[in-house]
């Protein structure tokens, strides 16, 4: 059986301008489009730019394995919703991913569990992979965070059909208190919560659990085997830094493959 890839994603939020977005994406396409671990699927990459840059970013990554997606979608089919973007349009353009439920959307735009559930259903109906952002508001014990985040996952999938629940899904675990902080949550906390979420998603074989919230270099190595990847932010605004994390993921994936091959040979 093929092993799940290490997933690395980045959302630019509203940090980048138009030219900066395209410069970053062209550099990454040139550096990583032919990276062996990206080509053979051991490392899966996705990029979420601002809406005005989606079309040229899709062109940048055309004919590469790098996925592109939107940072948001509206919670209704196409219609009279001035200034909004539909899931149907994202899918038509060629997007593969869409971010849903980020803490900033909840805090600044009053998005609640009902809106998140509707957006998740629409994304799945359009064949988009939801990057479902979940996380507890306050620092506390892992068991409390697990319970909170499991509820958020169940709530987000409440409107999905059984068929839609079998579609790919990326869970981005981002403790709200760690977003934008100088350091991520502790390794023990991240590992415990992500394992608890993996156990909860055992009936969703196409789901992966990645960590965000001040994620940076060496975190993936220190969490080796405890998470399925990282959702990167400001650290990866430097294309060289993003490439370094891809190389780190490639090494971990290669070591993991070698270990599994040795285990199979000894059976």
Automatic annotation (TrEMBL):
Keywords: Cytoplasm, Gluconeogenesis, Glycolysis, Isomerase
SUPFAM superfamilies named among the record's database cross-references: Triosephosphate isomerase (TIM)
CDD domains named among the record's database cross-references: TIM
Entry keyword annotation includes Transmembrane: no
GO biological process, one term: glycerol catabolic process
Annotated PROSITE patterns: TIM_2
Pathway: Carbohydrate biosynthesis; gluconeogenesis; Carbohydrate degradation; glycolysis; D-glyceraldehyde 3-phosphate from glycerone phosphate: step 1/1
PANTHER family linked to this entry: TRIOSEPHOSPHATE ISOMERASE
Name by which UniProt lists this protein: Triosephosphate isomerase
Source organism per UniProt: Salinicola corii
